[in-house]
Amino acid sequence: MPRGEHLGEFEQVVLLAVLRLNPDGYGVTIRAEIEARTGRDASVGAVYATLDRLETKGLLDSHAGTPSPTRGGRAPRHYRITPEGRTALDEARRMLDALWDGFEPGAGSA
Amino acid sequence: MSADGVGGPPRWVLRLLGAVAPEHLRDGVLGDLQEEYHERCARGGAGAARRWAARQALRSSIPLLARRRGEHTRGKGGGGMEGWMRDVGTGIRALVRRPGFSLAVVATLALGIGANTLIFTAVDGTVLRPFPFPEPDRIVGVGTGYPRIGRDLSWFEHASPAEYRDVAGTSRTLQDLVAFDLGNRRIAAGGVPTNTFTAFWWGDALRTLEMPAWLGRGFSDRETADGDAVAVLSHRLWAERFGADSTLVGRTVQVNDEPYTVVGVAPPGVLFYGADLWLPMPIAPDEFPRDRRQFQMVGRIAPGASLEGVNAELAEITRRVAREHAAEFPEYDGWQAVARTWTDINVAGVRTQALILLGAVGFLLLLVCTNVANMLLARARGRRQELAVRTALGAGRVRLFRQLVVESAVLAGVGGAGGLLLAAWGTRGIRSVVAVAGLGLPGEVALDLRVLAFTAAVTGAAALLFGVVPAVHAVNASTAGTLRTEGAGLTPSRSRQRLQRTFVTVEVAVALVLLVGGGLLANTLVRVSRVDPGFDADGLLTMRLTVPPERYPGDAMQLFFQELVDAVEGLPEVASAAATLQYPGVAFARRNFWPEGRVEGDAPVPRTLATLTTRDYLDVVGIPLVQGRGFTVADGPGAAPVAVVNESAARLLFPGEDPVGRRIQLEGPAADAPWFTVVGVAADVRNVGLDTPPAAEVYASHEQAGRGSNQLFLVVRTTVDDPYDALAGIRTVVQGLDPEQPVYSVATVRERLQARNGTQRALALFLGAFAAAALVLASVGIYAVVSHGVGERTREIGLRMALGAGRGSIRGLMVGEALVPVGAGVVAGLVLGVVAARGLEEMLFGITAADPGTLAAVTVLLLAVATTAAWLPARRASRLDPVEALRDG
Known about the structure:
The structure holds two protein chains of two kinds. Chain A has helices spanning about 10-20, 25-40, 45-55, 85-100, and strands at about 60-65, 75-80. Chain A is elongated. Helices cover about 50% and strands about 10% of the residues of chain A. Chain A starts with 8 loop residues before the first helix and ends in a 10-residue tail after the last helix. Chain A is mainly alpha-helical. A two-stranded antiparallel ribbon of chain A has the order 1-2. The longest helix of chain A is centred in the C-terminal third of the chain and has 18 residues, at about 85-100. In chain A, helix 1 packs across helix 2 and helix 1 crosses helix 4 (about 85-100). The longest helix of chain B is centred in the middle third of the chain and has 41 residues, at about 340-380. Chain B is of the alpha+beta class. In chain B, helix 23 (about 805-835) runs antiparallel to helix 24 (about 850-880). The two termini of chain B are about 70 Å apart. In chain B, the strands form three sheets. In chain B, strands 14, 15, 16, 17, 18, 19, 20 and 21 form an eight-stranded mixed sheet that branches. Chain B has a six-stranded mixed β-barrel with strand order 3-4-9-6-8-7. Among the domains of chain B are: about 10-70, no CATH class; about 135-345, no CATH class; about 550-740, no CATH class. Chain B is globular, with a radius of gyration of 37 Å. At the A-B interface, helix 2 and helix 3 of A face helix 2 and helix 3 of B.
């Protein structure tokens, strides 16, 4: 990933959801995972736009699954995290931790 | 219903998402939607699922679209509002970095857009929406025509009071039909009596227009029925003469020495042919003879009715009137009454010219855009490195293109704002041009919301026109040639040269179209000014006097005019003087004359100008007699009535016969009208206008015309260089005879004759200015092409010189190459110009739209300018030192 480019907040959310479902997550389950964990009802389009962008950056890769009648005969697209994706998540985590160091989460001061 | 038959998400949802999702995501997005839809159906029912799907479709479209647009750009951002704003920011910075270039572009654009805004302002204010009526399309005038007696359909001073009653009394499609006559009244304000153009009404025009009075009210029905002494003033009269005094309503003003109570002030811009004073008609419609035709009708189309409906009803009414009155008034056989919108009636004469002007200024904008495109193209050369770097750093073609177009839009925006400023500043000037040209247009020239919208649209169109082509070119060049050092090859960027040459062709063509139009009109004006009017039109001063009949009863009016003429002739600045109903340049009164011996039932002789004059009129103006005599002292009120006819009238009334000694009757064949004996034949002169063939004219003695007319022009042959130098003396004479008597409509005969060509003059002025601007712009374009050519081909030129080419031949080569696209532009411009000039045809005099002289002259002018523009930079090429050129290039 080019220097100076960090994961956006929603990118991290999506990437983490993919990681939790690894290697079989696809649109419906990723959205369900995000909603279950964060209470956030992200739109189908927003999730796909982000998945696609992460894939372009090389943090995810994807393959087509088996079409099914409930999907109107369309194949689901399964997403899997790449080693680069994993590194990016770690990096993001490390950066946040470094920033949080010394603060008590939820203290609500300031 | 989806294909699986179970019932899927609404079809529009699938269509919409299918359309916005990038191809490789489509199956995933649509499949997910369907899968989850079925799940939700099972859980919460079809209704909830459908609502969910609809929400998803709307919420998903924007991120998917943004993703789609950003897919070329790789990496972050690019889509959405944020990306656009960033581009605008980058655009502004890019322009600020090159202030000279930006200023040149913005100034060029501001001129083009400003000119367009200005012309639109003028056209909109005077032709498209000249009246401030709330619903201009529903306000109509009713015109009449009487083919049987050779009177064409007209809406001006053409209907009789009885005809007004015929229509007003029965029409269901017209509401509040009112009628008015025009005249002049003397109004005293601040102690100075001033002649005021006055409308006399049956009915309240403000009610017809559905406009409230500015102050007070309009006339009541009783006031116009009884002809009460009440008055409504125009807004401008109230503002200019009465200091916008808000307490004026209810007070009295002196109108021809009678007290009138002011009941209201009309809203601004509501004037009716410029009448500043409105009075109730003092006489009821049925007291006029049925054929006294000098009125105009204005009405409002009733709710639910249409203009077609009104005209269908009018046709019925005319048929009924014809049945009832044709026996007594034969002109009712086949007569017409036709409604048209008041706007159409009043601007029909200049609409073509207005559209020509809009078209011409549009051409100028096209030229401006081409020029700016050319400048951008030239700058793109300087930015090749920058763009190539950006491409290498990952900016996609679409992104780059967008960036360049946004820069153009920023330029256009600033140029548009500048144009608006210029237009605001120019509005005052254009008002005076419209006034000087004597166009007499209604309406006002002012910037308003419509103008703003127009400017915005023009600016947007301009940005597209000049921005897109260079942007495409720059993007293509940057991705094809990337980081190679520039100027290494022997040949220049061929495609840019080609594009620049195309621009030159377009510029030359547009410039030539404008030159052809301007040239034809200029040629026309020169020809018109060279026409021999048939009399000495210089040195003649004229002015009008309207004598109030109530103060000059019986013979007093005749005596007043005779005394006036005699007293004026005593002035040292005056050689001779006469009074007349009309004169060359101001010819409006036409009547039917019936030649003695013509059989009743024959077709009537077409109307001729009918001019009442005092004795010496023909001498004063200088119209020669070709036969017989003019009026003498012997032709007094008691003597047998005599007339002088001009040559055209003689041919018309007595074809192939000697008219002298024959008799004619006014509006015959009626038994009780007097017979005039023709005593002389006057030469034909240009009595209507310089560009119009002489009209048939019959002169009769004012003294023998009963009480005569109370409105006459004084025509004075002056002995001074500037005829206006005689005015002060004449005013003193008038004051001496009657201190209350105003003098107005002062003009020289020459001015009146020229005013008739006011539209041509105004149009020629504008087209000439546009053509001059076009020439400058085209030369800049040609200069740029040659100059760049020389810059890019330094090595080639050096090589040619090293191989023995002389300086002259280098110059010739560069100029010759530049003139190839110029030649193409000339051919295109001439063809287009001749086609476009056909719109001018009815304004031309003595030449056709394809006048070879004009075409040749403007082509030579253009070629001369083009050659100069090409020669200047070519000279630089020929001065190159071949050794230096080979080394540096």
